[in-house]
């Protein structure tokens, strides 16, 4: 017995969950958004990095149902150990200056399973990643970058984020966009299980203060975590001159995994200058001679000591 029926169910109200909700509403659909504790905690929440966390295989969603966990495990069984680093905490920013739309009547790109496996791993360790239980059936544009990477992109809108808090800016912007569209976020609603029918995902059941709530999904379930809203890293390079960034859902063809990214056509600002300097400052006339004579390098201490050989 279903309590509600919508087009898409989103299991969280973090950046990935709200981005999906806004995209679905913009296409004329309706969405159910659940908000468990931690989805909307204040920006700056500390996160663990450089550690193996088994729950990363399931986007940090703690579900008691064995059938649901078996489903998650089957989708990530070939990924091996996953480790989140400090860089994975940043909201991804991708420069797509040379991206071009792919003609659907053109040549089909070759299918490389390893690329999909690597993409799934990148999405699972990202706090802005998500699992969509169906292959994307909404409107998205296929783009190919200059390095031949094919992406499925659904643009939501544009934002000029706060350089000191990129993730928090995007979360605040998405929350405002969801409110403007009348999206209701159901508070204190945690995912208990995904409901299957003849092997297909047909909905989800949540625990609420008023008891279980079963929501049928006509077009799939988006599973995501709340994730941190601000990176604990030193800061992200952003385009100069306060350029706007496009908030997008980014996926791969034939993959159920994706993540929220910020796309820009402007080059990113350069990072801090390297502290490495050659012992011998004499430059030879030819690069070959320069490489031959500069054998020793002296490096400053950056984020602990460099690994042997660096």
Structure description:
- With 310 residues, this protein is of the alpha/beta class.
- Helices cover 19% and strands 28% of the residues.
- The chain is built from five helices and 19 strands.
- Strands 2, 3, 6, 7, 8, 9, 10, 11, 15, 16 and 17 form an eleven-stranded mixed beta sheet that branches.
- Helix 1 runs parallel beside helix 4.
- The longest helix has 15 residues.
- The protein is globular.
- It starts with a strand and ends in a 12-residue tail after the last strand.
Mean pLDDT: 78
- Which class best fits the helix and strand makeup? alpha/beta
Q: What does the overall shape look like? A: globular
Largest sheet: 11 strands, mixed
Oligomer: single chain
Write the layout of secondary structure elements.
Blueprint: E1 4-6, E2 8-10, H1 15-26, E3 31-35, E4 51-52, H2 66-76, E5 83-84, E6 93-95, E7 100-101, H3 113-125, E8 129-132, E9 141-144, E10 150-159, H4 166-180, E11 185-187, E12 190-197, E13 200-208, E14 211-217, E15 221-224, E16 245-251, E17 257-264, E18 277-278, H5 287-293, E19 297-298
Parallel strand pairs: 1-14, 2-3, 2-15, 3-11, 6-17
Antiparallel strand pairs: 4-5, 7-9, 8-15, 8-17, 9-10, 10-16, 12-13, 13-14, 16-17, 18-19
Helix pairs in contact: 1-4
């Amino acid at each position: 017995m279903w309590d509600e029926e919508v087009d898409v169910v989103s299991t969280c109200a973090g950046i990935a969950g709200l981005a999906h909700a806004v995209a679905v509403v913009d296409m004329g659909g309706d969405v159910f958004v659940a908000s468990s504790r931690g989805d909307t905690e204040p920006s700056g929440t500390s996160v663990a990095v450089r550690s193996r966390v088994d729950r990363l295989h399931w986007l940090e969603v703690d579900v008691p149902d064995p059938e649901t966990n078996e489903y998650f495990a089957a989708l990530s069984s070939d990924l091996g150990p996953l480790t989140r680093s400090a860089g994975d905490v940043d909201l991804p920013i991708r420069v797509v200056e040379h991206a071009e739309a792919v003609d659907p009547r053109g040549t089909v790109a070759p299918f490389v399973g390893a690329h999909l496996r690597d993409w799934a791993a990148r999405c699972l360790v990202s706090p802005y990643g998500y699992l969509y239980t169906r292959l994307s059936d909404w409107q998205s544009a296929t783009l190919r970058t200059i390095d031949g990477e094919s992406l499925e992109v659904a643009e939501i809108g544009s934002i000029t984020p706060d350089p000191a808090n990129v993730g928090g800016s995007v979360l605040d912007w998405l929350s405002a966009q969801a409110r403007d569209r009348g999206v209701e976020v159901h508070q204190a609603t945690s995912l208990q299980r995904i409901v299957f029918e003849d092997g297909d995902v047909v909905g989800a059941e949540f625990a609420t203060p008023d008891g279980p709530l079963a929501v049928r999904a006509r077009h799939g379930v988006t599973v995501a975590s709340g994730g941190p809203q601000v990176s604990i890293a030193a800061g992200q390079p952003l385009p100069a001159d306060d350029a706007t960034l496009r908030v997008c859902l980014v996926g791969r063809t034939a993959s159920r995994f994706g993540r929220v990214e910020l796309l820009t056509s402007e080059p990113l600002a350069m990072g801090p200058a390297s502290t490495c300097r050659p012992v011998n400052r004499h430059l030879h006339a030819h690069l070959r001679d320069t490489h031959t004579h500069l054998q020793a390098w002296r490096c400053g201490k950056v984020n602990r000591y460099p690994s042997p050989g660096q």
